[in-house]
Amino acid sequence: MKKTILILAGVTLSGIVFEGCLKKGDNDPSISFRSRKARLSGDWKMVSGNLTKVLTWSNGVTATYEYAFDGTNVVVTYNGNTYPAWPYKETFSFDKSGTFSQQITEGASPASTHTYNGNWEFHKKDKSAGLKNKEAVSFLSVTETHSSGSTTYYTDVTNGQYWALDKLTNEEIVFKIETTGTNVQGVPETTTGTLTYTQ
Question: What pTM was estimated for this model as a whole?
Fold first, then answer.
């Protein structure tokens, strides 16, 4: 009897330990021996990505920006007009304690740097969005510091929304982004796309 109880206890504990290690995102590994928090924690560099941002003014006029990232440069297309590549680099650091730092460096001679610091947390299960528990990341209480010395504070960088984790492995993160909100000028905007980071 005692042996049976110990075996059952072991099975139960294994279920608790591995629940956070099972596949969540569409392209996650089927199983991992590291928790999602452990896999996310660390230093990451953006290596590729595509984003589309649509701004809509109250008079119905819209503007569409498309961004193509290759880890070193970004190519911007504005309302169908494509402009020359622009130096662009981005890094993310996630800490297990729930803090993060993001640094964006763009342009040259001189380059301009934006540093974002704040808190992150896993998004809870959301049936309406088709999200499993811990399948997305929310960024909270963010401070932006520009290389010029200016500082901006945000209560929620994603306007109460999240970046879904399409893929989370020990070496690669793929964020699937679909957010709506308003920009700093108060214009409604939607952003969709994917961003890939590696360690």
Answer: 0.81
- How far is it, in rounded angstroms, from Cα 158 to Cα 181? 8
**Residues 1-12: pLDDT tens digits?**
444 444 434 444
Owning domain of residue 97: 2-198
What is the phi/psi pair of residue 53, to 5°? -120, 125
Determine if the peptide bond prior to 188 is cis (ω within 30°). Answer: no
DSSP E strands: which ranges in 57-187?
Answer: 62-69, 73-78, 81-82, 86-94, 99-106, 112-122, 136-146, 151-156, 163-168, 172-182
Beta-carbon neighbour count of residue 34 at 10 Å? 15
For residue 1 the two structure tokens come to: 């009897």
Q: Under a CB-based contact definition with an 8 Å cutoff, are residues 16 and 29 in contact? A: no
Per the structure, the count of domains in the chain is 1
